[in-house]
Amino acid sequence: MSTVKAINLVLPEIEVYLAGSSLDGQLVLHLRSTLVDPLVKVELVGRGFLRWFEEDNPDLDYYKITACTNDAVYVFKTENFHIEDGCLDSGVHTFDFHFNIPPSIPSTFTSKIGCISYFVQGTCCSHHVVLAKEERCLLLQGTAGNHRSYVEDKAPVVVKARKDVMYFCCFSYGSVILQISLEKRIFCPGETIIFKTDISNRTCRNVRKVCFAVHCIVLYSGFSSRGELRSLENISEVTKLEVLRNIAPSETMRVTSALVLPKPMPLTSTLKENKIMAFKYELVGTSDLPWTTSTVIARVPIIIAA
Fold first, then answer.
1. Rounded (5°) CA angle 119-259-286
2. Could you tell me which residue ranges the Arrestin C-terminal-like domain spans (predicted)?
3. How far is CA 285 from CA 68, 248, 299, 304, in A?
4. What is the mean pLDDT of the chain?
5. From 2.60.40.640, 3.50.30.30, 3.40.50.1110, 3.40.430.10, which CATH number describes the 4-141 domain?
6. What pLDDT score was predicted for residue 55?
7. Tens digit of pLDDT for each residue in 173-196?
8. 277: Cβ–Cβ under 8 A, 6 or more apart, which residues?
């Protein structure tokens, strides 16, 4: 039976921690009997890791898959507790700890290809043997980045997209035009994006639905098994909205919509800042042209900054 009955980490009730803030907590250790030569510590760890598979050499006659990987350490801090007389009596012992979270680390992020994660880990050892351990994950919102260079970029943004089509059944031409207007293009995690869309239906059929989404475009940077630098770009939806309308032929309709950004979320950044991943965002509006397989797509680049 282990000498340690229980080990618990007590953390503040904070849903999302901010980079540059502090973390105060307690490690509570419950011992069944006296513990000699103990090592009690708490660690704050933040790591990034990515992995994807791709064809090793398309020019070869046979098919060979290689794994591309990379990793980064964003924070690794340890607080060792001083034990008087080199032993701990049976009972409950409480250890206070304090960490300053670095200001220039990225946000928590998870995808099928990579992740950036943070956790606090409490450990109790004796004679180099781990007796008990507890780990608590942290959600962290990054605050660093090039946000200062975006401050002056406050001009409204208007993007227009048009898709033409020919209806062979009646030998007529048509088009659908999407025009998305934003008062600004810089947003904070957790903020609501409010935008207006003018939908012009120049076809002979009704337009019934327009979809909006915020896309996160991630550039991953890794190394193959031979040490060659590789990159992969992947797009995922952060949040989305469907607007159902019945827009008649030759009609133009204005729609005001809102999309709420999650928190935490990675800031717009480069590989230089995040080491293994770079992030950028766009607001995308799409609408299928009636009675066709064509789609009109309007893309508005936006910036996520804190």
1. 115
2. 172-306
3. 33, 19, 7, 18
4. 90
5. 2.60.40.640
6. 79
7. 788 999 999 999 999 999 999 999
8. 48, 50, 106, 109, 114, 116, 218, 219, 220, 221, 266, 271
